[in-house]
Amino acid sequence: MVNWKFWRRRPPARILRLRSRGDLGDATRVAFEELAPDATTFLGQAAYLQLGYFETLSRLIRATPDLDEKEALSLAAGAALVKHRAIVDVIRERGEVPSEIMRPFQAQLDEFRWATIGARPRETMLSVHITAGMLDDFYRTLAAEYGDTGRKVARILNVDSDRELIVDLIRATIEADDEMRSLLSMWARRLVGDTLLVARAALRPQRLGVDDEKKVEPVFTALMAAHARRMDALGLSS
């Protein structure tokens, strides 16, 4: 699990070692009440996360010479950018400045994003698929707390993320390379802890009490169930 203040990247190596550090379906709807952040925080985080997915995928496009991979990555990057711009439009409708709303979360979310970039392209593809899937689920759940603004964001996050071709690339690698299968399975498990930290950090209290933990437990249980389904679809164990 990544240390949010101190983390180091290991250089790539042929020996496959990890660096040191779907949706919620019919999950029970939880009223976060005082646990949910204010609407400005919610919008700023949701918008910047989508921009981060776009940036990570764009870097992968530039790094790969394979045209099929470029196509797969470009579709997913384009979908993330569309979502980002749509959430930015919601922010502007509220009379707020998008850059000012996102800026307080830039450093923290960049740290998370860089910590979940793998030493190899398939690890990074898996990172986007897993972390974006879990966090989109989480922010859709939070959206219920923000009235019409939340409904608009939920509709945006419900739009297809166009990651199917990326999933096909990951699945093909897993089927062809047992060593990579093992590596990606471990990498995905590590991503879960880091992603749950981001979700918890989005909630208003710095520390959740026992009663608060009970309120949010169904949501995190549902996030893990959806994650398990994504892993099963890839042919990996969660």
Give an overview of the whole structure.
- Residues 42-199 form the Ferritin-like domain.
- This is Ferritin-like domain-containing protein.
- It holds the Pfam family MiaE_2.
- InterPro entries: Ferritin-like, Ferritin_actino.
- There is one protein chain.
- Helices cover 70% and strands 0% of the residues.
- The chain is built from 8 helices and no strands.
- The chain is globular.
- The protein is mainly alpha-helical.
- The chain has a single domain (34-234), classed as Ferritin.
- α1 packs antiparallel against α2 (67-93) and α2 runs antiparallel to α6 (164-176).
- The two termini are 15 Å apart.
- Residues 1-28 have low confidence and may be disordered.
Structural class: mainly alpha
Binned, the helix content reads over 70%
- CATH domain topology: Ferritin
Q: What kind of sheet is the major sheet?
A: none
Number of helices: 8
User: N-to-C terminal Cα separation, in Å?
Assistant: 15 Å
CATH architecture classification name: Up-down Bundle
Count of individual domains: 1
What fraction strand?
under 5%
Give the SSE order as H and E letters: HHHHHHHH
Unreliable runs, pLDDT <50, ≥5 residues? 1-28
CATH superfamily: Ferritin, core subunit, four-helix bundle
How many beta-strand segments?
A: 0
Overall radius of gyration: 17 Å
Please write the CATH class name: Mainly Alpha
Morphology: globular
The residue-averaged pLDDT reads 85
Protein name: Ferritin-like domain-containing protein
Organism: Microbacterium stercoris
Pfam families: MiaE_2
InterPro entries: Ferritin-like, Ferritin_actino
